[in-house]
Amino acid sequence: MSFYSQVKRFLVGRPIATKHAHHERLPKRTALPIFASDALSSTAYATEEIMRVFMVASLAYLHFTFEVALVISGLIFLVAFSYYQTIHAYPQGGGSYIVSRDNLGVRYGQLAGAALMTDYILTVSVSISAGVLAIVSLVPSLSSYIVPMGVAAIGLLTIANLRGAKESGVVFAIPTYSFVVLMLGMIGWGLTLPAPPVPQSIAHAEHQLVDQFWMTAAFLTIAFKAFSSGCAALTGIEAISDGAGAFKEPTARNASATLLIMATLLAAMFVGASFIGNKFHIIPMELHQAGYKTVLAQVCQQVFPVTTAFGTFYFNALQVATTLILILAANTAYADFPRLCSFIARDGFLPRQLASLGDRLVFQNGILFLSLSAMALLVKFGGDTHLLIPLYSVGVFVSFTLSQAGMFARARKLKLGGWKPWVSFFGAIITAILAIVLLVSKWKEGAWLVPIALSILLGVFIGIRRHYDYLARELEVEPTDTVPKVRMTVILLVPRLHKGILQAIAYAESLSEDVRAIHVTLDAKSVAKIKEDWVRFGEEIPLVILESPFRSLVDPVTAYIDQTIAETPDQFITVIVPEAVPKRWYHRFLHNNVAIALKLALGTRKNVVITNVRYFLK
Amino acid sequence: MSFYSQVKRFLVGRPIATKHAHHERLPKRTALPIFASDALSSTAYATEEIMRVFMVASLAYLHFTFEVALVISGLIFLVAFSYYQTIHAYPQGGGSYIVSRDNLGVRYGQLAGAALMTDYILTVSVSISAGVLAIVSLVPSLSSYIVPMGVAAIGLLTIANLRGAKESGVVFAIPTYSFVVLMLGMIGWGLTLPAPPVPQSIAHAEHQLVDQFWMTAAFLTIAFKAFSSGCAALTGIEAISDGAGAFKEPTARNASATLLIMATLLAAMFVGASFIGNKFHIIPMELHQAGYKTVLAQVCQQVFPVTTAFGTFYFNALQVATTLILILAANTAYADFPRLCSFIARDGFLPRQLASLGDRLVFQNGILFLSLSAMALLVKFGGDTHLLIPLYSVGVFVSFTLSQAGMFARARKLKLGGWKPWVSFFGAIITAILAIVLLVSKWKEGAWLVPIALSILLGVFIGIRRHYDYLARELEVEPTDTVPKVRMTVILLVPRLHKGILQAIAYAESLSEDVRAIHVTLDAKSVAKIKEDWVRFGEEIPLVILESPFRSLVDPVTAYIDQTIAETPDQFITVIVPEAVPKRWYHRFLHNNVAIALKLALGTRKNVVITNVRYFLK
Is B3 within 8 Å of chain A by CB? Predict the structure, then answer.
C-alpha cells in the first residue's frame, strides 16, 4: 500500500462505497427525512428570528409573532407549489441552477449557481451554530465554548464525509421523526394549557404604546422586517425538487406528495411553535446572557415544566433531537455541494476535473472547501445563528427567485396556460423583494458579504469559461493538421546495476531502437563496477558515463538531454528513471526519485517525457 | 516557468551558482577569516564560562580565570598540533568523520559523524545566542526579545543560505579582522592601565576563605570544572583541517601555517581577555539581570570608558563585530552540515540521495533540518549561551577525541615513529576526560540530550545501512538473470480530440504496435463527437469508449487496465495521459492531471507505467 493510501486511511478510514447509495430509489417514508431535515430543522430558529426583530422595537410587538408566522406559512405553500411544478417539469431533479440556466439563460444560471454555493456553505454554518445553541440551552455551562464546539462539529462532519459514511435511511429517520413528534407533541399539549398572565415587562411596554399603534408606518416597517427574518423558515424547501430523481417510480408523484407533506409539517410546526411562544409570553434571550436558552427551549420548559421528571425528559429529548436534525441538515450540504459543483463544472464554469465527481480526490476537495468556508463564517460571527441567518436568507431568496422566475419563463416559452405559472411569478416577486429587504436592512451586520461573494464567484465562473473557450479555439484541429511521425530516443538512468534495472532495460528496449544508458558518477569507485556489469546485460545499449564535479545528479542529465535536443530537435526523448517501490512507506525516504527533480528541471523542454519504471522491493 | 519555480523564487529568490565558489583555491589571508571565524568567535564567551563556574563557588575564585585560560591555551596548541598532523595526512581535507572511519573503524566513524551533526546544530544555536547577547549588551532594552531575535537571526541565515548567497572573502574578512583588531587593541590598552582597587564584594569573599584554600580538594574540583567549561574556547579549531582542500598550493603548508596563526590569535585573545577581565575585577552578570552585559562588554567598558566619545565608539564597534563574527561562525555550519551529510550518505548511513549535494533540493533539505533543530534548541534553552555550551562542548570533545585517536591509530598502523603521534594520544585522553566530566557535571542542565541524540543518530545510521545492505543482497543480479523480452500495450487517454492530442497519438504510435485509445464518457454528448473526430486522426488505433455511471474518470480506466492485465499478464502496459502545460501556473488548476490519481490507484500493479505527454498552451 502506498504512503499516500496509508496516510489517507489513517485520517479518513477505510473507504466505503458511498456512491452507490444514492442510486437506490427511495420510498416516501425514507425520502422525507433525508430531503426534509434541512427545511424542518429551520423551525428550530425561525420563530426566534421574528421575535428578535419585534423585541428591538418593543416587547409589546412580540405577540404579533404568530400572525407573521401565519403569513409566512402562506409563503411556504406558495414556494412549495412552485417547486411542485418544477418536480413535474424536471422529474429527474431540477435545482435552481439547472432551471435558471435552461430557462433564463447562462448568466442567470451562473448567478443561481453562485447563490447556491454560498447557500450550502451557510447551511452548514447556520445549522451547526443553531445545533450548538440547542446543546447550550441544555447545558448552560457550555456557553463559553460555542465557537470551539461549532468548529469541532464541522470537523467531525468533515471526517465522516471524507470517510464516505453510508447514509442509511435510519440515521436520518430517527432524529427527523423524533423532532417532528416532539415538536407537534409540545405544540398540542401547549394548546390545552391555560395562558399565564402577561409578565410585567410586556404589560409595561404595551402600556407605553398609544392606541392603534399597529397602524403606523413604523410598525409596518418593523412587521415587514420581522416577516423577512422569519422567512428563514423557508430555507431547505427546494431540496425535494433538487433530488426528485431519487424517488421511487412514479417519481414525480411520489416526490410532489412528499413535498406537500413536508410543507404541511413545516408550516404546522412553525406556526404552532410561534403560537405557543406568544401564548406563554416567551421573550428571546441574548446569546451572552447567563443561562441562555433558545426560544424553542423556553417554550418547551413552559409547556413541560422541568420540575417534573417527564418535563425534564421531554426537554432533554427535544434539545437532543433539535441538535441531531440540525446536524443532518448541515450534512445534506455535504452531499449537495460537490454535486452542484460538478453540474457547474460540466458547463465549464468551474475547473473541469470537478465534473468527475466519482473520483474521490475531487469529491474530497469539495468537502474540504465547504468545511473551511463554513468554519470561517462560524468563527467570524461567533457562532451566533441570529447574525448568520440574514446572509443565509439573502442567498436562499436569490435562488428561490431565479428558480421561480425560471419556471415562469419556461411556461411562457412552452405556452402553458392557466393560473399555475402565475403562482411562480408571484412567488418570484415576493422572494426578490425579500432578498432586497434583507440585503439592505442587514447590510452592516454582514449582508454585504453576500454580493461580494456572489461577484467573486461570478467572476471566477466567467474567467474560467473564457479560458476554456480560448483553449478550445486554440487547440481546435484544423483540416491541415495531421499526426506527426516521430523518432524516439530513450535515455535510461542507471545508478547501479541490480535486478530492478533489468526490467527497466527491457522496457527501454521495447520502446525504441535508440536507447542510451546514462550513469552519473557521484563516486569514482562505482564507474569500473558499472562498466563491468553493463557488458553482461546492456551490451546492445551504449553506456554513457557523465561526470558530476559538483555532485549533482540532475545537472549532468539535464545537460546531456539539452545536447541531445540540440543535435536532433524533432525527436521525442523519453527519460526512464527506475524507481524503487519499497514495501514500507517510510522506506521511501531512503530511495531517490530523481524523476521529480528532473521534471522540475526539464519543465520547459517540449518533446521530453519523463517516466518512472518501478521495481518492487520485497 | 512552473508553479513550483515561481513559489520557490518568491521565497528564496533567483538562484545563484554557489557551488562553484568552494572550488576556487584560497590564499591564506582569505582562508583565515573563512575557516577561523568559528574558532575565534568562541573568545566571545569562553572567558565568561570560566568565571561563571568560579562565581557559583565564591567570588574570591574569580581571579583564577587567567590561570585557567592559560592552561586551556596549552590545550589549544596541543589539539592544534594534532590537527596539524591531520592536515599533512589528509591534505584534501580530513574531518573527524573520515579520520575516525578510516583509522578506528566504521562504528567510531558513525559516532564521530553523529557527534559532528549535533555539533553543527549547536554551532548555530550557541553562536546565534551569543551574538544576540552581544547586541543586548549594546541595547539593553532588547533584553526581553532574546529568543525572538535569535529565531529571527536563524531565519535570516536560512533564507540567505537557501538563496545560495555567494560567500565572498570580503564578507568574512571584514568582521573577522575587525573583531581580532578590536580585541587585541582592547587587551593591549588594558595592559597599560593601572588596576582598579578590588571591589568590596570580592574583598569580602576573599576574606571569608581560609589561608591555603586553593589547595583543598573542593577548590581543585571547581577549578577543573571551570577548566572544562572554558574549553568552549576550543570549538571550531578543527575547521581548517576539515577544509584543507580549499587552500592554495602547497595546500598542506598553507593550511598548517594558517592553523598556527589561528591558534596563536585564539590563545592570545582568550588569555588576554581573561587577564584583563581579572585585572578589572569583572563579575559576570545573570542573563535576566537588568542591564545585562557580557563579560567581554564589561571588559571593554572598563578599558575604554563610555564617558568618552572614543570609548562609546569602541564599545559599539566591538559589540557589532562580535555579533557579526558569531553570525559568520553560525554560517559556517550551513556550508559544513550538508557536506558532512553527503559524506555519511555516500557510506550508506543516511538516505542515499543526500549524497548528490549538488542538487538544490537535497542541499535545501539539509539547511532546513539544521535551522529547525537549532531554533528548537535556542527556544528550549531561552537563548542562554551558558546553558547551551555544555551540550556543545560534549559533542565537540567527542569528535576531538575520535579525531586524535584516529590520528594516533593511523600512526601505529603506518608504523610512524617519533613523539608526534603521542601528542595526538595525549590530546585524545584529555579531550575524552573533558567530554566525560562535562557530560556528568552538566547532566541535569541538559547534557543528557547529547547521548540521547547520539544514540538516535547511531540507530538511524545503522538501520539505514542495514536496509541498503539487505537491498543490495536482494537485488544482486544472479548468473541466471537475463533481460526479459517484453511485449508492450499502450493505452492512450483521450478526453477530447484537440491539437495537444495529436502529439500524444504520435508518441503512442512510436512506442508500440498495440495502441488503444480510451475515452471515458462523463457526458453522453461527447461520444458522438469524439467518434467522428477519431476517424480522421486515429484510424489505426482502436477507440474504446468506457461508460462511467458514477462520473469517475479513474475507476473505469483502472478497471480496463486490470482486465488487460488479466488477459495478458506478462506484458507491460504504458498509460499515456496527455497533460496540458498552461502558460500561467495558476491555470494549472483548470487542467486535470489524471496521471496523479491513476498512479495512486494503480500503485500496486507491476508492469504498469503511467506517463504524461505534455502539450504546451500558448
Answer: no
Shared domain check, B506 and B398: no
Whether A405 and A502 share a structural domain? no
Name every residue whose Cβ is closer than 8 Å to that of residue A360 and which is 6 or more positions away in sequence: A15, A164
Which pLDDT band, with edges at 50, 70 and 90, does A20 fall under? very low
Is there a single domain that holds both residue A504 and residue A366? no
Task: Determine the Cα angle at B331 with ends B286 and B153, to 5°.
Answer: 55
Residue indicated by cell numbers 390545552 = A192
Interface test with B, best of A341, A346, A365, A510 (most B CBs within 10 A): A510
Number of folded domains in chain A? 2
The amino acid at B615: Y
How high is the pLDDT of residue B16?
37
pLDDT at position B318 is 95
More confident residue, B480 or B214: B480
- Answer whether residue B482 is part of any domain: no
* Residue B7 near chain A (CB below 8 Å): no
The answer to whether residue B512 neighbours chain A at the CB level (below 8 Å) is yes
Q: What is the pLDDT of residues A394-404, one digit of tens each?
A: 999 999 999 99
Query: Last residue of some domain: B467, B497, B516?
Result: B467
Q: Is residue B56 part of a domain?
A: yes
- What is the average pLDDT across B173-201? 93
A112 and A212, same domain (yes or no): yes
The pLDDT score that the predictor gives to residue A59 is: 87
CB contact under 8 A, A511 and B488: yes
Q: Is A159 on the interface with B (CB under 8 A)?
A: no
Give the pLDDT confidence score for residue B12 in this predicted structure: 46
Å between A499 CA and nearest CA of chain B: 5
Classify residue B472: in a domain, yes or no.
no
Mean pLDDT of chain A: 87
Residues A254 and A295 in one domain: yes
Residues 6+ apart with CB under 8 A from B578: B492, B493, B494, B495, B500, B501, B503, B504, B612, B613, B614, B615
Contact status of A612 with chain B (Cβ, < 8 Å): yes
Note whether residue A474 is domain-resident. Answer: no
Is the pLDDT score of A588 beyond 60? yes
Nearest-CA distance from A508 to chain B in Å?
10
Q: Which domain holds residue A536?
A: 488-616
- Is A525 at the interface with chain B, CB within 8 A? no
Asked if A92 and A102 count as a contact pair (C-beta separation under 8 A), the reply is no
Same domain, residue pair B463 and B500? no
Instruction: Report CB contact under 8 Å: B346, A487.
Output: no
How far apart CA B384 and CA B402 sit, in angstroms, is: 28
Last residue of a domain, one of B434, B467, B500: B467
**A611 and A507 both lie in a single domain:** yes
Same domain as A79, residue A197: yes
Residue A614 touches partner B, C-beta closer than 8 Å: yes
User: Given A5, A507, A592, which is nearest B609 (Cβ)?
Assistant: A507
Pairing outcome for strands B572-581 and B543-547: unpaired
Would you call B21 an interface residue with chain A, using a CB distance cutoff of 8 Å?
Answer: no
Q: What is the pLDDT of residues A328-364, one digit of tens each?
A: 999 888 888 988 898 899 899 998 888 887 777 778 8
Task: Look up the CATH number of the domain holding residue A283.
Answer: 1.20.1740.10
pLDDT tens-digit profile of A116-130?
999 999 999 999 999
Test B483 with A505 for CB contact under 8 angstroms: yes
Q: How far apart are CA A314 and CA A318, in angstroms?
A: 6
Q: Which of A117-126, A425-434, A596-605, B282-291 has the lowest mean pLDDT?
A: A596-605
Does the CA dihedral A313-A319-A320-A321 come out positive or negative?
positive
CA distance B507 to chain A (A): 7
CATH code: domain of residue B591: 3.40.50.620
- A538 exposed, middle or buried (CB, 10 Å; 0-12, 13-18, 19+)? buried
**Cell numbers found for residue B584:** 500561467
Inter-chain contacts counted by CB atoms under 8 A, chains A and B? 224
Flag the least confident range among A229-233, B12-16, B115-119, B359-363.
B12-16
